[in-house]
Amino acid sequence: MHHPARVVNMPSVIYVAIGMPGFIRCPIDANPPVTLVKWKKDGLPLRIDKFPGWSQMDDGSIRVAEVTEDSLGTYTCMPYNTLGSLGWSSPAPLVLKEPPKFSVVPGGEYRQEAGRELVIPCEAEGDPFPNITWRKVGKPSKSKHNVLPRGSLQFKSLTKEDHGEWECVATNVATSITASTHVQVIGTSPHAPTSIHVVASSTWANVSWEVGYDGGFQQTFSVWLKRERLGPHDWLSIPVPGGQDWLVVPGLEPETIYQFSVLAQNKLGTGPFSEVVTVNTLVFPISTPEPLVLLTPPRCLTANRTQQGVLLNWILPANHTAPIQHYVMEFRLGERWEVLDDSIPAGETDLLARDLIQEAWYEFRVMAVMDDIISDPSNVVGVSSTDFFPPPEMVEERGLARPVVAGIVATICFLAAAVLFSTMAACFVNKQRRRKMKRKRDPPLSITHFRKSMETP
Questions:
Q1: What percent of the chain has pLDDT over 70?
Q2: CATH 2.60.40.10 region(s) of the chain?
Q3: Residue limits of the Fibronectin type-III domain (predicted)?
């Protein structure tokens, strides 16, 4: 039933612990929910922003970061909702109290075998005298335990359920304080794995979990799965290799709902199953052709020995789908390839390899790089460094280079041959001319023809 906001059961006294965080609460009954709460301190409107460390909560309560004497006073509150308010609360004076203090705190951890007794000390003092209780963090313990008169926790017979974090809580009218400890129960079956996480694709699932307490012995795991529509007797188990906390489950059907659980086991038996996680495998992907990325190796690598070193030349790759970024030249003397130069500019197709070891066989190959993709190597060329090439300074000391000298000698020989040939030709022509002139000066010869008679005398 809808009604205006009202205050119910306002405490007659508000107790807060000095030097600690505290709350000044306004107990409200409102339907629709409260939208605004106004406060007065000592009969005057309370300006919360005037007090450092003070803030108003969503439910209208006042939170004090550290209680001091500035908090002293008498408080009243008036809540509002969309239907209005039924008025101010009764006044409640605020009283400062000392918080309880622990005189004996529990240790950080206790280890005890299952079935044995365990007593964990905890004592507190204060004015008024605090009340001590114990609570288990997380899942409550179903075993029997007692709180002794001075506040210690007693387990007469430890069980597997007693394992975990425990808190000693000391409470008085002002506030509560806590001290925590960890109880480790040895000699039990493993605890259930927690935080099961399943990532599914179309045909596989990656199952991971947080390992529970092993009970004091080495534990192993198995992953259990079934299709959701199948019955409770259709679970399949897959052992997990080693002590890993994950498993990839293959062979699943696309677009199918599966359930997964994890089970732990040690030499004393199996623990409880973990929570069941339900996932739906994905649709089988339709393959789409990836964009073509093509980079063929550089071609026709050659090696020519010069006086300065080995001159390596190559031709650009025949095909590449993006501009070449640079080239990488490698060499080897034995089995292992090593980098000679890994930043040859894309515009260059030659490289001079200097300072080679004498009397060694070198092999070279070149690769192209495009968009962080490296091509296959080019053809391999080999060259021997056995022959000695004089260094440039020796050539300069001796005179002209050997190819230049050879050219000069060849030219001189050619010219000499040409002169000799010309001289011989001139002599021959002159000799022929003299013979003709001599024939013209001599008289012609008279030639008499004799005829031998065939007659007989």
A1: 83
A2: 3-97, 101-186, 194-280, 299-384
A3: 189-284, 297-392
Q: What is the pLDDT of residue 395?
A: 41
Strand pairing report for 92-97 and 14-17: parallel
Contact (CB, 8 A) for 34 and 5: yes
**CB neighbour class for 263 (10 Å; exposed up to 12, middle 13-18, buried from 19):** buried
- Nearest-CA neighbor of 194 among 264, 265, 258, 242? 264
CATH fold for domain 101-186: Immunoglobulin-like (2.60.40)
CB count within 10 Å of CB 316 equals 15
Instruction: Look at residue 224 and give its three-state secondary structure.
Output: strand
Report the SS3 class of residue 52: coil
**Per-residue pLDDT, 447:** 32
| Cα distances (Å, whole numbers) of residue 80 to 11, 291, 426 | 19, 65, 139
In CATH, which of 3.20.20.70, 2.40.30.170, 2.60.40.10, 3.30.70.100 is domain 194-280?
2.60.40.10
Q: Which amino acid does the sequence have at 388?
A: F
Instruction: Centre a 10 Å sphere on the Cβ of residue 110 and count the other Cβ atoms it contains.
Output: 18
What span, in angstroms and rounded, lies between the C-alpha atoms of 346 and 403? 33
* Backbone region of residue 167 per phi and psi (left: phi > 0; alpha: psi in -120 to 50; beta: other values): beta
Query: In terms of CATH, what superfamily is 299-384?
Result: Immunoglobulins (2.60.40.10)
In the numeric block, which tokens belong to residue 164?
A: 């975990």
Q: What is the pLDDT of residue 26?
A: 96
pTM (global) more than 0.85: no
- CATH of region 3-97: 2.60.40.10
